[in-house]
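assembly run, all chains below
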Amino acid sequence: MAGFLQQVVEGLGAGAVYASLALALVLIYQFTGIVNFAQGELAMFSAYVAWQAMAAGLPFWAALALTLAVSFAGGMLIERIVIRLVEGAPELTLVIVTVGLFIFVNAAAGWIWTFLIKDFPNPFPRGALEVGGVSVGFSTLGVLGVVALVMGLLYLLFQHTKIGLGMRAVAANPDSARLVGIRVGRTLALGWGLAATVGAVSGVLVAPLLFLEPNMMGGVLIYAFAAATLGGFDSPAGAVAGGVIVGVAETLAGAYVPAVGSDLKIGVPLAIILGVLLVRPRGLFGRAVVERA
Amino acid sequence: MSFLVVEGLVVGYGEARVLHGVDLSVAEGEICAILGPNGAGKTTLLRALSGMVRARGVIRLGGTALTGRPPDAVARLGVAHVPEGRGTFMPLTVEENLRLGAFVRRGGREVEDDLDRVCSWFPPLRDRLGQVAGSLSGGEQQMLALGRALMLRPKVLLLDEPSLGLAPLVTRELFRIVQAINQEERTTVVVVEQNAHLALGVARQAHVLETGRIVLSGTAERIRADEQVAQSYLGYRV
Amino acid sequence: MTQVEDAGVDARPERRRPRWTPTGRRRAAVAALLAAALYAPFQLVPFHVFQLTMVLVYAVALLGLNLLVGHAGQISLGHGAFFAVGAYTAAVLTHGPGLPYPLTLPAAAVVAFLLGLAFGVPAVRLRGLYLALVTLAMAIFLVPLLKRFEGVTGGSMGLTLPKPGPPAWSGLAEDQWLYFLALAVAVASFALVGSLLRSRVGRALHALRDDEGAAEVMGVRLPAYKTLAFAWSAMFAGVAGCVYTWVIGFVSPDSFTVNLSITLLAGLVVGGLGSTAGPVLGALFVMFVPSIAQDLNEAAPGVILGLLIIAVMYVAPTGLAGLAGRLIRKIPRKE
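ok done. output:
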């Protein structure tokens, strides 16, 4: 039993990371109807920015603050420069453009920082909390705490600020939002900036667990896709729940299903994506069928 | 004194022209009805006024040129447009929908008072402030749309087919409220309506639009009296 | 080709009908290209012959991808997986039962076709980006899967195989023989796809791409055609994979990562979606641009590819093929 709980705890830690990237995906999908295939790479790039800041001598938390600011600006810039031009284009075009962005950002990181792996400091203390035979690493707790904090801040932003209300209005009905005087273009850019910031958090959380290298987020992105699909692409809360479920399912499958083992774990998100799309395409918490006609 | 002036307004979607040089002038504080059959370009005219479609020609509001401005800029100048289909923010609550109407205003006391005022005009909304707007009935959604527009404290209110899909009783109530608001606030109103009888009941001036041109203008009484003309242009009894 | 061939599109009543009609030009271009393709291996050094062979392999893979993306308007971010399946089918059948290489081609085609069909069935119910997600996940999953079944696939080490040798009567060197094999497969594939697109099937696929709703109204059986588009597309990728195995003589999971899938899609986009020349231009691009850029910096291919894809989507959605077409049309016509 303790062994099982231990696995669940590990899964929660992994799930929190997936949840944060899934949250970034969902934010952009809600605003623009775009699934951003480059989201993981943007997060990876952010992690490098943090690494660079620390290499320049900044302490971790200062580097994080700087990274979040840079990511926010970067996300807005990408929306203004790249995405704006294909707004309203067919889905195929949108997917291809974000794939192009994926390739570009991935290679750009390799160009700037090389493809050699880098060590990324873990901001949380070593060691673990022992609770009834289950050990919960401080690092896991830290990740869970950060993701919960991000969730909370987003909730406050969306539910209790005017900007957040405007963003939700744009997501719900862009034409009507224009008519009440909301600058929709700016709001969309804001959405991308916000998503990039949330993604940056996931990048900085992942980097110490994996090694920092340009392909670090490739796998995580698939898990985040599974999380967003499971939770519903139009539900931020669903994305987080989906992330946690995917993380736990992956860990348990790896531990208890011999056919899966550690090497085929990546099959778990694949199975989840396929299963959800075939059985309940809107996901667990999605409002309606997510397909935009 | 003309408040809203339109001169030579031309709108085309791709190849097809919808408006061929519309001239219009509306005095401040007046209700102006735009009548005409389906497909005459009434909705397009309103959309051009609020900047939702690109138009050539002149649109002026109290001396400020509106042509070429995007809808959000037009809204910030005090033009509230209740669009075709009502433009409800479905997943948001009724209160959030109303507050969005006042998005460009500085918050505070006045907005809170206006929220209260809108609720007193439309009592059903007060009971449903926390409810998701998508769950409202058609009539309630039309009230919400009108209420949202009023939250702007608009100088000009553009109404697109407020009667569409509503029971006659509800429609009459809506028009009564529009008239009351017009008298209390001196809000200029441009209303597009298929139900000419209702619109002429509240309007002072009326214009008949047919295939993208204004074919008849005059006071509401004159248009109403001129049944022969109206009938031949409108294709139905006034 | 002295006769007037194209009656409809370019009629200019005030002038005599030009000799160089679009169809005429196109046929001449194809003939010239084929002649050059037959001549080339006798003039080039073996390494360049090998490079051209790989261009042909990629062209067949892109041909398949183009059928799905360019013609049917569906997305696949995982076509490298079908390519890999074709490659591994050939490798495993040669390595284990010792199947003669010509027979591995139909085997690879069938396996990839069936796999495409299997993916095409759920794909019918998925639109756009979901298809992209599922195919991407498939491509990512394939690598650990290949490593897992070590007994069959050789695991991470992969399988090394003898390359098909030239028959004595041909008098060709190995690289030339491989080149002609690839050329034969490529020509046959292009001919097959060409006739497919001219048939009812082609019209149905285009209807699918341009407007699913209208296609359905017109009586196109959407599910059937979507599934088949997937299967055919996978089949050509599998065929290309099989030829790849012949040419390289080695398969390993790391040759078929998700990067391959993405590179293929990128190549097709740059070459030109939905055009005949697109796959060929795309294959040239995939083969040469990354390796040239590599000299600049390890990351340069990705940077260039990424920027180009985005630029192409803005400036020239018809890709290089479309640009070339526009240029050709600008050349003054002979009277």
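The interface with chain B takes residues 162, 165-166, 168-169, 172-173, 175-184, 287 of chain A (CB under 8 Å).

The radius of gyration of chain A is 19 Å.

not gonna interpret more than that til we talk
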